[in-house]
Amino acid sequence: MENRTNMQIAMQLGAGYGIDSGAWRMPGGDPTAYTNMDSYVKLAQTAERGKIQMLFMADTPALGVDLTNRPPQSPMDPMLALTVIARETERIGLVATLSTTFNDPYNVARQFKALDVISHGRAGWNAVTTSNQAAAANFGSQVASRTERYERAHEFIQLVQALWGSWEEGAMTLDVENGIYANMNKIKPINLGGKYLSSHGPLPIPPSEQGQPVIFQAGGGQEGLELAGLYASGVYASPYDIPSAKAYREVVRQSAVNFGRNPDEVKVLPGFIPSIASTEHEALERRKHLDGYTDLTGKVSYLGAMLGVPLSFDDIDRPLSPELRKYANANPQDPRSPRALELVMRGMTIRDVLAHGVINYHPIIAGTPEQVADFMEEWYVSGACDGFAIQPDASFDGVSAFVDQVIPILQKRGLFHKDYEGTTLREHMGVSYQYGLRL
Amino acid sequence: MENRTNMQIAMQLGAGYGIDSGAWRMPGGDPTAYTNMDSYVKLAQTAERGKIQMLFMADTPALGVDLTNRPPQSPMDPMLALTVIARETERIGLVATLSTTFNDPYNVARQFKALDVISHGRAGWNAVTTSNQAAAANFGSQVASRTERYERAHEFIQLVQALWGSWEEGAMTLDVENGIYANMNKIKPINLGGKYLSSHGPLPIPPSEQGQPVIFQAGGGQEGLELAGLYASGVYASPYDIPSAKAYREVVRQSAVNFGRNPDEVKVLPGFIPSIASTEHEALERRKHLDGYTDLTGKVSYLGAMLGVPLSFDDIDRPLSPELRKYANANPQDPRSPRALELVMRGMTIRDVLAHGVINYHPIIAGTPEQVADFMEEWYVSGACDGFAIQPDASFDGVSAFVDQVIPILQKRGLFHKDYEGTTLREHMGVSYQYGLRL
Ligand SMILES: Cc1cc2nc3c(=O)[nH]c(=O)nc-3n(C[C@H](O)[C@H](O)[C@H](O)COP(=O)(O)O)c2cc1C
Ligand SMILES: Cc1cc2nc3c(=O)[nH]c(=O)nc-3n(C[C@H](O)[C@H](O)[C@H](O)COP(=O)(O)O)c2cc1C
What we know:
homodimer, globular, binds flavin mononucleotide, TIM Barrel, 2 domains, FMN-dependent oxidoreductase, nitrilotriacetate monooxygenase family (chains A, B)
């Protein structure tokens, strides 16, 4: 295993509020964060103060949620938000998600490479196939079969990389004296095409300080693993515990090996939600405060279903009754259920059990900075991951709490770098230089 | 005719250098301007100092030129460049060209509305159909028939406007106390579709300070005129003289009337290239200096063809011989040829005739600030235009020369505003508020 001293951290910015649907209501936060670039910039600058390797924007081109009580989940536009941030930060990486299903390779290649040049080599592209029906409907189509989406994704990513490489290094001469702007022998069409897509090129954008953007990947089963193994330097993952995380990381690494790559070149970053306070009790109070901003009816019945017992909102401030405890069991299909069962059995109220985050998509630690660091260390040193994609519960103070309180502990323990390795995302991540298609 | 005191000026930024292909070599300029956002920002801030209503980015998604001796013609990416500028300026409008042929309406609606919100109501979209074969090849297609391109453009623009309107005004409540983020009765799907395109929506972006971006249009004969009359508040045009400009403006205005609109709502902005110096002689020297950076062989023979006489590069520093003058005549198909003939007949050398800009795509005035202002005044007061889309010869000093020397004259003559009318592009242009589709 490679040296475990360079934990990779991606800070997720989302719609500007944090992952908790009540976060937009937190006193001291900015309810307008979604539309207010100043809020994004502030979060980005805070993350950069913590030497966090990259910002990360998940994205689905559709309004996936009812906004009556909660904000959107995606930014207004990830490329424009990261462009704003590029100019108001110096070092931090800028990773945006863009779908290979609902875009054209030329446009994607152009915008990411422009962002890479504008940011002096800090751009990354999370290439996803998007299986969301609402997104498909926005483009007048329906979700294609997995096979078709992934075949297209391969063509798409290869075209984008070929376009990136079509303006070769050293092509831009800028020889004012002799009037030679560029060497056209080094700027060539790609003329590549497949079953779904083709492009002629060249893309008239020179290399950035890191050559071309770093590729990320997320989800998609066996087909997704092939994308990861072939192209990705970073994988955004969603395991819930160390055994499943380890297993997933192993298959990602094996996929890289299958395609002739060094597995250390692919960093697996599980999503993780820290809720930080000075005591565990306060952290749980923070989470209950956030929960208090939203309707928990659905979550209570979801927890009941998870444990195989009927639960309704009226039960929320009581522990599970002794009779129901007899019937409660951990659903073997759901990695989150053993922990839920354990907390219920300790006699906690349902509200407290929920505050522990047992039914969230990603693992949650509600606790002190030490407890958060302990969680991260345990996963990291056991080889369950190469770092984390952090989703702050509420961003406005959650990012600074992580940066000011957790990062120093990780640094003291020798797990996280003390400063950026260089100026580019590739340097921060410790992944190899690549320009154009990998041959 | 409306009051002629609010001349509209769009400053074109192009690839950052200016329209002259030798501009990148000018001493004092920035040869890296294409990739250097600081250069773009500086130009934008200079234009804003001059109260210029808007910046304008033409764009074709293809490398249309050989870069051996000259820079690209389009920016790396117009949306990203304008996003950078949005954050580093306060008032100036931000208009980008994006093709209706090589994009998806949802993506275009999203990026322009995000830019509009980020810039607090300063975005504009120049919707073009792009008849360029190199562009088509970058998207794996061929140039479709004009009919098809314009049918698609109608559907495209209507879908974009409908998506813009799908998040109604007042939908975003941000009621922290009661936990009401938005009123979902005011955020509705559009469910619109046509022959080529459809989209479900909604687009989850609230209105900007100007509601939605301003629409521009350029080119395309009768079909283009229909687009202009139906949707555009600004038309980028390329007439060469006052009679043709007047005629073109009249048909644009008539097209607006045909579609039930007030013709004053459509501003026609011909392209115009000022070359400014303290004397006419110096201005011509400036142009000859710029010409000296490029190979004029092609231009000399082009001039010969225009006048119906054989000319070669060897003739460049001589006037036309008396014998050839007998044969020279103004090609009636080319509005630029009478002026070319006149200058030739005055006995100027070919180099000097070319320096007057007689074969450029847009009219050129090489002269003093007064001469430039005189030209603009004559066109404007005679109703040949509503303003201009300025293409500086070389931007690095051409924009500031225009702002510091020409603008004050236009202001003194009461032709150009002394300050911005408000904070939004619609206010600067004096065009009506519109939100969603015009019904
Ligand atoms: C952790 C994680 C994050 C993801 N983020 C996104 C995203 O931001 N946008 C998106 O469109 N899809 C995202 N996906 C979805 C994947 O692209 C993929 O469509 C999904 O996993 C469904 O699998 P399938 O594509 O094999 O049907 C994500 C998946 C995972 C596991
Ligand atoms: C002044 C002017 C500027 C134009 N600017 C652009 C541009 O920036 N990008 C582009 O793709 N097309 C541009 N066009 C081209 C038009 O979209 C149109 O394709 C062209 O006029 C050819 O006409 P057609 O579409 O009817 O074939 C421009 C046209 C004119 C007259």
